[in-house]
Amino acid sequence: MLIQSTVFYFFSAILVASALAMISVRNPVHAVLFLVLVFFTSAAIWLLLEAEFLGITLVLVYVGAVMVLFLFVVMMLDINLAKMRAGFARYLPVGLLVGIVMAVEMAVVLSRPAFDLQKPEAKPADYSNTQELGELLFTEYIYPFEIAGVILLVAIVAAITLTMHKRTRAKRQSPAMQVSADRAERVRLVSMDKD
Amino acid sequence: MIDWWQALVAPFPPLLLTVAYMLVFILVLFACVAYATLAERRVLGFMQVRLGPNRVGPQGLGQPIADALKLMFKEMILPNDADRFLFRTAPLLSMAPALAAWAVIPFSEHLNFADINAGLLYILAMTSLGVYGVIVAGWASNSKYALLGSLRSAAQIVSYEIAMGFALVGVLMASGSLNLGDIVMAQQGSILHWYWLPLLPLFLTYLIAGIAETNRAPFDVVEGESEIVAGFHVEYSGMGFAMFFLAEYANIILISALTALLFLGGWLSPLEGILPAHAFHLPVIGVLLGSGAHWFIAKTSFFIFCFLWFRATFPRYRYDQIMRLGWKVLLPVTLIWIVVEGVLLYLQLPPWFD
């Protein structure tokens, strides 16, 4: 128990510190990397809660893919730091207001009886969180699960269609044609007389 | 022998023992990585009809140690306006995931560090972290070539991860488990029961995607010296460069080990089902012929050799063709084979899916 709570407080301290750092550092790339640390540490806390599937998926999806693309974009931005920091005092009241509203809302929701959770009992060592989740998702919640999948598919198709615009004047290569090229259409062997 | 060992270590606390085992293992792994660099140079030399390093020690066996000493004593140059902290952290970021992934790799039926249920998922998560080292290095160097290299790398790794993930989906459909030990045990029988045969397209996809993930030739546009000098690590020197170099080989060994586990039956003996059962009970030869960690190491070494072989054989891909291969060839292949596999599973096709 002692080890478990030590680990929990260790990760929580890192989580809170990196979350604060993420919104306060000046450099956007550093901010993104702190966000990565936030995700990673929350995954570790989820592992402590015996939700290993969710924890590892958080690392795989958010840290391994989403944040990579995020970092990719942020790295290419040409951000004027001085200009960005100039409006800090002006936006502070609005930011504070939004923050207070969010804190109150969270307090209201979390104090409801539905959130009055009992401390869950520790599961035995051979308990497989992944299997339990899979069985629930593919039996009881199969329709919501598949509908969510279809919605995501529609979102993918929509996002790709938005970025697909044919530039008629641009010249581009077709790798498929290049790969299928063979010797006969490129080289002509000519036999010539010796002189 | 195992009983004798357990009696010897019984008085020590388990946590201490695990840490000790890990330290020993990491040392062994580093030695393997160091000698993989020598193997690469010797194999390339052999394939290109030249000698390769053979001066330091017998057959050049002292070369990795000499290289390591040289790189350790070299100055680590910090470029102007580089991000000091991230510049120094980036090599660690690319090394650490390659080591962390080994935590769940089983060497034989009872020989592993952590036998966790979601082992395959953990592997996938850890290998997907390796890209940060490359991206952070490229950005922190404050150099155009390094940034270009890291952007190429990010796009390439994210693209091939998808095909790789789908290949793994095929494996876990066939074995019905995310646990690496269970996946190997599900392949038991004979060499024809291993998943390379029923999942041949996924096996090839995994191997190709693995080469792309480790940024090796023919997919090494990340460091393509003819276009962007040396890519993301152009500004690194001394130990920083050495760490990237070691991380590349650690990743090669990891991908080879995973391919061996997932598609070639891990520690299972290829002689199973060929030799009569009593052959495995012979005094000394029986242990060698039967399943064990030595077969796993042999299979891993074979794939490491393949990585070197491909480097010597194939010319570098053009960048848009890499993207085409990943998205338009490998991804459809895996998707189609997953559907085919679903049908085979439904039919319970013997001997694999019954």
Portion in helices of chain B: 55-70%
What is the typical, i.e. mean, pLDDT of chain B?
84
What is the number of E strands of chain B? Answer: 0
Shape of chain B: globular
Mean pLDDT of chain A: 84
- Number of helices in the DSSP assignment of chain B: 14
Q: H/E element string of chain A?
A: HHHHHHHHH
Pairing-aware structural class of the strands and helices of chain A?
A: mainly alpha
* Poorly predicted sequence stretches spanning 5 or more consecutive residues of chain A: none
Shape of chain A: extended
Explain what the structure shows:
The complex is a heterodimer of chains A (195) and B (354). Chain A is an all-alpha fold and 195 residues long. Chain A has helices at residues 2-24, 28-48, 52-76, 81-86, 88-110, 129-138, 142-163, 175-179, 183-186. Chain B has 354 residues and is mainly α. Chain B is 64% helix and 0% strand. Chain B contains 14 helices and no strands. In chain B, helix 7 (144-175) packs parallel to helix 14 (319-347) and helix 11 packs across helix 13. The model of chain B has no long low-confidence stretch (mean pLDDT 84).
